[in-house]
Design goal:
The chain has two domains: 106 residues, Rieske Iron-sulfur Protein, CATH 2.102.10; 204 residues, Naphthalene 1,2-dioxygenase Alpha Subunit, Chain A, domain 1 (Alpha-Beta Complex), CATH 3.90.380.10. A hairpin with a 5-residue loop joins strand 7 and strand 8. Strands 12-18-17-16-15-14-13-19 form an eight-stranded antiparallel β-sheet, covered by helices on one side. It has a four-stranded antiparallel β-sheet with strand order 2-3-4-9, with no helix packed on it. Helices cover 16% and strands 32% of the residues. The protein is an alpha+beta fold. The protein is built from four helices and 19 strands. It starts with 34 loop residues before the first strand and ends with a strand.
Length: 367
């Protein structure tokens, strides 16, 4: 049961203790046609690198031309992890058990002591489309040929006047919960009080929500600059904020702020589901400010990590409760602006549906 239909009218105060479990409801999804970040490009050197995406063990390595390749981390011969092997001078990955060697397409190129050709269908390790782009290694979840789609691009990375800061962190939470957290405005006044916002100043804000086939956007209209430390650093002079939160399939949470003509902040977070309840977050933050970028950059990452540490703690506690009760239960209001849309888009992607109906509406928050 998902977030859209999990509200309940049951009165827990009247239910027997034996049935106060949520009966296995779960927002866990598996996306079978999606690009995810496996690691930063500079983390993949001359040795193979083991990663896990959606509970699938993978091994990344560079071939003789330096191109990144991804195979299932299992030798088809005797089930030994290929990530424990070595990359040979010819760019093949050699299994540590019997020395079988595989190229970037997963084809077996050599079997020590074997007379005759090494390649055969049975000896092939499944390979996954891999691209190196914008300083990241992206892996597609469908093995085989390169798909027509391409990974998300970071719009302001390298743009004139912009400074970019990157970071990778990990949350003990499902893909959905992590994405919703990254795009959830109401919690910032409580969980991140002082860093990002304060408790409500009683200012009504209009949220204009627009959902299309592959994304949902919330534009927040009429918001003064937040009172927290992060906002003060980005715009010391104050002003009215132009603020957008976006979810973009398959797993991008995008937050954008404009304050006046000089201050622009764009944060793209690509969420990679390691397992059902572990999600790795790769953040790319690009900004332009009245304060010179080289002066501001050393402050952005530590502040962002302080905010994330608070999120990581609450997400871990959320996951502990979900597991303790055997599932999830949601009670939402109209100010939970993006959650149901994120969930519906993820569900459609997991089913392989081409799209969900477009939708537009407005709601009011008091911040």
């Amino acid at each position: 049961m998902g977030i859209e239909d999990s509200n309940t009218t049951d009165d827990d105060s009247r239910r027997p203790l034996s049935v106060l479990r949520t009966r296995g409801r779960s927002s866990v999804v598996k996306l079978h046609d999606a690009w995810f970040i496996a690691c930063a490009a500079d983390e993949l050197g001359t040795a193979p690198r083991a990663v896990i995406i959606q509970d699938v063990p993978l091994v990344l390595f560079r071939d003789a031309d330096g191109r990144a390749a991804t195979l299932l981390d299992r030798c088809p011969h005797r089930n030994v992890p290929l990530s424990g092997g070595t990359v040979c001078d010819d760019g093949t990955l050699q299994c540590p058990y019997h020395g079988w060697r595989f190229d970037g397409r997963g084809e077996c190129r050599a079997v020590p002591s074997l007379v005759g050709p090494a390649a055969s269908k049975a000896r092939t390790a499944p390979s996954f489309p891999t691209l190196e782009q914008d300083g990241w290694i992206w892996v597609h979840t469908a093995p085989g040929t390169m798909p027509a789609s391409r990974p998300h691009r970071f719009e302001k990375m390298g743009a004139p006047g912009y400074t970019t800061v990157c970071s990778t962190v990990e949350a003990e939470a499902s893909l959905f919960s992590t994405l919703e957290n990254a795009l959830d405005v109401p919690h910032t006044a409580f969980l991140h009080r002082g860093l990002f916002r304060s408790e409500s100043r009683g200012i009504p804000i209009t949220a204009r929500i627009k959902r299309t086939a592959d994304r949902v956007e919330a534009e927040f209209i009429g918001e003064p600059r937040p009172t927290g430390l992060v906002a003060k650093i980005l715009s010391p002079s104050g002003g009215i904020v132009q603020h957008w939160d976006r979810f973009i399939l398959p797993s991008i949470a995008q937050v954008e702020y404009r304050i006046g003509d000089e201050n622009h902040f764009l944060a793209d977070t690509v969420a990679t589901p390691v397992s059902d309840f572990v999600t790795r977050l790769h953040a790319v933050v690009s900004f332009r400010s009245r304060i010179p970028g080289p002066l501001l950059a050393p402050l952005v990452k530590p502040l962002a990590l302080r905010v994330f540490e608070q999120d990581a703690t609450i997400l871990r506690r959320q996951t502990e409760v979900i597991r303790r009760f055997g599932g999830e239960q949601f009670a939402s209001t109209e100010i939970d602006v993006l959650g149901r849309h994120v969930w519906r888009l993820l569900q459609a992607a997991a089913r392989g549906a081409s799209s969900v109906p477009d939708e537009e509406h407005e709601t009011t928050l008091v911040l």
